[in-house]
Each structure stands twice: as C-alpha cells, then as structure tokens.
Amino acid sequence: MLKLLIVDDEQIERDGLQVILQKAFPQLEIYQARNGKIAVQVAAEVKPDLVMMDIQMPGMNGLEAIQQITSTNPFIKFVMITAFDMFDYARQAIKLGVKDYLLKPSRISEIEETVGKILMEITEEQRSLKVLESTLPLVETDVVTQLLFDHVHDVHLDMLVDMLDISSTHEPFVMSILLPQSGENLYSLIKEKVRKSASGWVGALYGRQLPIIVFRKPDCSFRSQAISLAKDILSLKKVSSNDEWFVGIGNVCDSLDQVRQSYQESLIATMDSSLPVKYRFYHDVPVLGGTENKLQSKQREKQFLDEIRLGKWDEVLKKIMDLIQRCENEGTDLLQTQQRVLELLWVAARVMSEMGVETETPFFSYQSQDYRQLRSESDHLLKQMRTSYGEHYEQLEADTIHQIKQHIVKHSHEDISLETLGRKVGLSPIYISKMFKEKLGINYIDFLTECRIEKAKKLMADPEKSLKEITFEVGYHEPNYFSKVFKKMVALSPTEYRRTVLGKKG
C-alpha cells in the first residue's frame, strides 16, 4: 500500500485533498501535517512515498521542510502546492527534486491526474525493485568470488549483507565442498540447503569445488553449526549415488576482510578426501613430521596456495622439495611422504582450475623406491603444471582487459556479473577478478561502481530527472544503497551534489 502525506496549514485544504484522493485512489494510505516541522516528524515515522507540500506556511516553509526530509530520505517524491503568484518559485523547487506542482485552486481532474501519474511511477519503480530478487544469485556468487579472491569495498558489503537477507555476524568461516564430476546438477540443491539454514552465501562452482561463506549463529557452537550444515549437504550424496563428496571447513574469522584465510584453510582440509567421515576441520588436519610447529606448518601451506595463484613456480618447487627433505630428515615413511606431496599437488591443480587454467590431475606414475625418485617425479609433475599455466597466459589476447573494460563502461547500467563477463571472453570469473587487480590496480566491483557514479553525476545536471529515476537508470535497484555508495565515492550525498551542480546552496 502506497503512503501519501498532505502538508498544509489550512485544515480545510488538507481535508479537501484527502477526500478527493481517497475517492480516486481508495488503496492509498493518507496522512496529514499542519506545518513543515510536523511534516518532518511524520515523514520520519511513516516514510511516505509521496508528499504534497504547501510552500507558504508559518514557521518552517515548504522548501525548508523538503530539505530536511530529503536529508534522511532523498527518494521521497514531492508535489508542491502553490498560489499563482508563487509560480516561478515552484518551478525552482522542481530543480531541487520536486516532481510536480499544483496551483491553488486546482480542479479535481488536475489533482487526480498529477497524483495518479506519480503514483504510477512509484508503482513501476517498486516493480523494478522486485527484479532484484532474480539477480540475487548473481550478487551472491559475485560477492563470494570477490571476497575469496580479491577485495570488496566495505560500503558494498554493508548493503549486500542487507540485500541477501543473511543475519550476518562478525564471525564468518568458509566451507569448501568437493563434488563429483557431474556436480553442476547438484548446485541448485546445495544452494537450497544453505538457503534453508539462513546462514551463508554460496559461491560459483569451479570444476569440482564449491565455496560457501557461512556466518556464525549465536545460539550454537562453531563446530556444531558447521557439522550440521556439512551433514545436510552430504545427505545429497543419495541423489548422486557417488562417494566423491568431501567438505573442508576453515576456521572462524573476526571479519569478512579475513575470510580469504578461512577459505585457504578449508582447501587444505580437503586434501585427503579418502577419510571415512566426509568432512574435516582445518584445525584437525595433522601436521606431517614432529619437529615443526603446527601453526608454522599451516601458515606455510596457505602461502603455498598464494604462490600457485601468483605463478611463483620456483617458490612452489622449493616448498615441495623442502617438505620432502624435512620428511627424509625425520625418517617419515616414504609412502606417507609421497601421499602428502600428492595432496599438495591436487590442491595446486584445484587452485589452477579456479583461475581457468586447464591441467591434468597430477598422479605419480609409480610408487617411489627412494627419496631421490620422489624428488624427480615431483619435479616432473610440477613442470607439467607450470607448462599448463604458462600456455594459458600466452593464449590470452592482448586486448582482453580492454575488451572487458569497454563492455562494463557500455553496459554499466545492467546487472553485470563476473560470470557474465567470463562467458563473454571465455575466462573464469576468478581469473577476470585477478586480472583486474593486477592490470588496473582496482577490483571489478569498484570499477563498475566508478562507471555508474560518473554516469549518475552527468544525469544530475538534468533538473527534470529525480534522484530515484537516476538510481534505476545507472543500474542500482535500491535507492538507499545508491545514496550510500554515492556519498562514499563523491564525499557528498546525491542531494548535496545536485545542489552544487545546479548552482544551489545547501
């Protein structure tokens, strides 16, 4: 139900308008205020969609009231009510965001036509907002991708948490799900399980791996929550009749800024998927060898994953060889050492797959007879992976990043996702995110935001366009989110910026 606020110091005027409008629009919820000060209070309480505001009132006049109301909600629409000799004043008010005006006295047909037109606009905009529901899966996968492989600006995170309707705590953790080869068919079923738990965001499926950012629930422990969700997901094994499932669970972080660490931990927890219980916490991953501190060992593993992503193959080789040497010095069983090295290589192959690099799953062709053979075979497998990595980069066209930039600039008003861009240029979403950061020094969401805000600034020079219209035209579905992002980027609210552009003083 739409809400309308009538503001006029003459009660007969207010009551007359209410009778006319209630008859023409019986579903309309109507409120009244007898002066500007009360109008500001009522608007804050009921949040009307439309305000019919008299200009000349004792105390706070109509324009002053509009300025105060729009300072907290810049997307309310206004119709000014003015006497004939205030006509020029009313026209100036339109430049401040007032949608239309009525002259006193007005014919009933004029009132109905003016208000009806604006109510139709509001209804259409609200219908457009519902489109957001269909785009939420794209929003969700984009945010997970950005958080785990890049960085999302805090202003986006705050709003996206609200948009995705997740009760966010400041204690997120990541679960990495390893699926069978035909895992694409299970994606929607897993999303439904997570949605019912109302506790997490599901990322995009890359190869066999599906990351999920989970938020701690205050009414249960971390382990019990994670085990419950893992068992829910693993119950889908019956659907696939496949035993290749496994769930790795990273530690809880203090904030979303640190969630990438939990993701790396969840990957490490999936290294041995042959365990009878098909889930494992990172905290429970055993350390190979007895002389190394457990924390140091796991920090080394996380650094190993970063070096794979960055293509630091000499460092990767050194870490593998250091591991083999450490195991040999400690007298570790050779077969156990070979299995440990293979687990690390599997994780490396998974990370490469996330980046869009196709490589064969590494396997030792035979059981090593001694540590010398293990070193040689490990070196051979790494060289194969390094070759795949190099060939992938060489095949990329030189203008790929330029092509992506041009597409975003041209289509910034649309719901562009990393997956959409990936399909356009034949690259994985994670790789595009990585390329943006390396080549442009900016992440994908911030670049898209800059394009939208620049377009919004140009549109604000047109006094006939309302801020709400501009919000939708540049690609945002939620006016309050647009206002928040705009102020973060420009250091002025949309209303303040528009006054500056139109030569008005706040």
3D architecture notes:
Helices cover 58% and strands 10% of the residues. The protein has 506 residues and is α/β, with parallel strands linked by helices. Among the domains are: 104 residues, Response regulator (Rossmann fold, 3-Layer(aba) Sandwich); 86 residues, no CATH class; 102 residues, Homeodomain-like (Arc Repressor Mutant, subunit A, Orthogonal Bundle). Helix 5 crosses helix 17, helix 11 packs antiparallel against helix 12 and helix 12 runs antiparallel to helix 14. The model has no long low-confidence stretch (mean pLDDT 81).
Helix content: 55-70%
Specify the CATH architecture of one domain. Answer: 3-Layer(aba) Sandwich
Reading off the top of the CATH hierarchy, the class of one domain is best stated as Alpha Beta
Regarding quaternary structure, what we see is: single chain
Strand fraction band?
A: 5-15%
Segments where pLDDT lies below 50 for 5+ residues? none
Tally of separate helices = 21
CATH topology of one domain: Rossmann fold
Find the count of extended strands (DSSP E, 2+ residues): 10
What's the shape? elongated
**Radius of gyration, CA atoms, in whole angstroms:** 30 Å
The spatial strand order of the largest sheet comes to: 2-1-3-4-5
